[in-house]
Every structure is written in C-alpha cells, then in structure tokens.
C-alpha cells in the first residue's frame, strides 16, 4: 500500500488550482467539502504519482461536464414500471450500515440478468446510485457519526451464478471502468458470499493476478458469510441473502423491508423520490422526458475490467474443461436457493 506524502497532496492541490471554473464546479460534487480526501483517493488509485493522479481527476471532471453527471440525479427513469423492471434485473441495494457507520451495498451478482432495458438505462441507474451515495448517503452518515465517512462496503452474492452470465461481460466491464476511473477508492472492502464451487476454483487463479491494493480488499467468505459479517455489522444490517444459511438471494424473498433489491425497500424509495424531487426543482414547468441518459463509455482497460475479464475467462476455461453447459448452481456444494 503506497503512502501518500503531504508534499504530494500539496502538489496535487496546486495543479488543481489551475483548472478552469467548469471543472472546479463539478469537482465540488466529488469532494463534498473535503478536497483532501478526494486528492488522497485519486493519488492512491495512481500509486502516489501526482501527474498521473492529476490527469485521472481532470479526465474524470471532463467526463462529468461532457455527460452532465452533476444533473443525473434530476433525471428519473420513467415510467415507474420500467424502473421496477431495472431493479428486478440489476440487483443492487443498501441494507444498512457497519458498526463504524459505513454504508453497506449489496449486489446480486449471480441473479442479475440485465435483460429488461438497454445498456444505457443500467449504466444510468448505476451512476445515479453512485452519485446518491456520494452526495446524500455519505454526508448524512458523516453527520450522524460525527466523523468524515467517504467510503462504503460491498457484499456480493454469487447465488445462482450461471455460465450465461458471461453474456453480460460487456456491461459489467463498462460499469467497472466507470467506477475505476471516476469513483476510485470509494469501497473499503468487498465480501463475496454464497460462492459456488466454480467461483472458488477460478478465484484461486485470478487472485494472484490482482494488484495488492485490490487483492487485500476482496474476501471470499464461507457460505452466506453471516458469522464473519456480524463482526462488522449488526444483524439488522445484514443483506437478506446473509440472514440464514440456504436463504439464497431471491429477488422476491421476504418483505420489501428485508429484500434490499426491491424498489419497495426504503433505500430505493428514498432514492427514487429524491430523483423525482430534483427533477421537479430543475424543471418546474416542462414535463420530464422519457428515455435513458446516454453516457460516454470509457474504452480504457482498468484494473476493474481486467478483473472481470480475467474471471470470465477462467469461468469459460473451467466450463470447457468440465463440459459444463448447465447452471453453476448445479456445482454449488451449498445449495442457496430461495
């Protein structure tokens, strides 16, 4: 792990004083009043190299301006039925907070199908959750806990993982690239749960290929991970798929308050209401347009895309070697079905 010096931070700050006003304005939505934290995140992402970190941040700010990211929280996905379909096929939620006050985000990596809308809608939804996290959730968590909180924790559920998931590799690499290039070092740890045998086997190959900084963040937990996760969060904040062994991560399991993926869950209700309110504030007269927001997709190969692509490649190799065409669930020694 590289150590960022005060001199590097000062140099970075001096360089940022020279950027134009449009970039400085959008930078405010990144740092949320804490520029030092933003400098540290971008410097860490570029191993302490000031010039590279400065280029990365300027490129990110330019991307934000060109794609109107500052206004994306005023662009609801409508009608509601379409947004509900996206929530049912892009399984993301926020079940609670860690004992230290960090927001917990859950991802249904195995059961997400991404087949109910265009790529642009899924990218728009992902960026909106990122922006809501950074502009609303994290500042509120900081205020509540009386300390600066700028990172979150992610729990990835591999229940239902299939070889057909490789068909979504393009979308997953787009999302990974957007996060790597524009939201670096926003996650303190990734916990993988309900991992089928094939994932565990491929992980052993992929893990040594990752940068040390990323490798240390990723932990593959046993079963649903409940015992390990309860060391850092209360039971009430556990994602529903970690509540008991064999619970799985069904899109419809339990009540709406328990299923953090559901549009009816408080987090998604608050997020969707916030976006609709912002739309009314920005456009009090004109009706909100239907249609997705088209964001420029990065074409750079990032650490995240290398991880996704390498893991997918290992899945394919493993599948061919074992003549697999069926669901990876069939290989899961822990059958986590709903």
Give your account of this protein's structure.
The chain has helices at residues 6-16, 21-31, 35-45, 50-66, 80-89, 119-145, 169-182, 197-206, 212-215, 226-229, 266-282, 303-321, and strands at residues 92-97, 103-107, 152-157, 187-193, 218-220. With 338 residues, the protein is α/β, with parallel strands linked by helices. The protein folds into two domains: 6-67, Helicase, Ruva Protein, domain 3 (Orthogonal Bundle), CATH 1.10.8; 74-242 and 256-280, Phosphatidylinositol Transfer Protein Sec14p, CATH 3.40.525.10. It has a five-stranded mixed beta sheet, covered by helices on one side. α6 (119-145) links the parallel β2 (103-107) and β3. The longest helix has 27 residues, at 119-145. The protein is globular, with a radius of gyration of 20 Å. Mean pLDDT is 86; it is low at 246-253 and 324-338.
Shape: globular
Number of strands: 5
What's the rounded overall pLDDT mean?
86
How do the strands line up in the largest sheet? 1-2-3-4-5
Reported for the largest beta sheet, the result is: 5 strands, mixed
* CATH level-two architecture of the largest domain: 3-Layer(aba) Sandwich
**How far is it from the N-terminal to the C-terminal residue, by CA?**
40 Å
In CATH terms, what is the fold-level topology of the largest domain? Phosphatidylinositol Transfer Protein Sec14p
Organism: Solanum tuberosum (Potato)
Protein name: CRAL-TRIO domain-containing protein
Pfam family, one: CRAL_TRIO_N
InterPro entries: CRAL-TRIO_dom, CRAL-TRIO_dom_sf, CRAL/TRIO_N_dom, CRAL/TRIO_N_dom_sf
């Amino acid at each position: 792990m590289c150590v960022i010096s005060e001199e590097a931070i000062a140099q970075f700050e001096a360089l940022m004083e020279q950027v134009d006003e449009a970039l400085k304005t959008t930078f405010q939505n990144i740092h949320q009043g804490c520029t030092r934290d933003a400098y540290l995140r971008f410097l860490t992402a570029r191993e302490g190299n000031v010039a590279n970190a400065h280029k990365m941040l300027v490129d990110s700010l330019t991307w934000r301006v060109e794609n109107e990211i500052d206004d994306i929280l005023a662009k609801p996905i409508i009608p509601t039925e379409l947004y509900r379909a996206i929530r049912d096929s892009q399984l993301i939620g926020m079940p609670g907070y860690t004992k230290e006050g960090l927001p917990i985000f859950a991802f249904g990596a195995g059961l997400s199908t991404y087949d109910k809308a265009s790529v642009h809608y899924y990218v728009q939804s992902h960026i909106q959750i990122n922006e809501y996290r950074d502009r609303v959730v994290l500042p509120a968590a900081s205020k509540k806990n009386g300390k600066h909180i700028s990172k979150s924790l992610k729990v990835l559920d591999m229940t239902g993982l299939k070889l057909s998931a490789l068909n979504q590799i393009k979308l997953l690499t787009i999302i990974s690239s957007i996060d790597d290039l524009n939201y670096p070092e926003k996650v303190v740890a990734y916990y993988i749960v309900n991992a089928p045998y094939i994932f565990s086997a491929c992980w052993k190959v992929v893990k040594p290929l990752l940068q040390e900084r990323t490798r240390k963040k990723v932990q593959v937990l046993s079963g649903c991970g409940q015992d390990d996760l309860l060391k850092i969060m209360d039971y009430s904040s556990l994602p529903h798929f970690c509540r008991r062994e064999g619970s799985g991560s069904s899109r419809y399991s339990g009540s709406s308050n328990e299923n953090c993926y559901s549009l009816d869950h408080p987090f998604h209700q608050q997020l969707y209401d916030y976006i609709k309110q912002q739309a009314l504030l920005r456009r009090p007269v004109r009706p909100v347009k239907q249609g997705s927001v088209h964001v420029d997709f990065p074409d750079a190969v990032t650490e995240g895309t290398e991880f996704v692509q390498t893991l997918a490649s290992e899945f394919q190799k493993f599948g061919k070697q074992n003549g697999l065409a069926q669901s990876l669930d069939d290989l899961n020694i822990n059958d986590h079905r709903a």
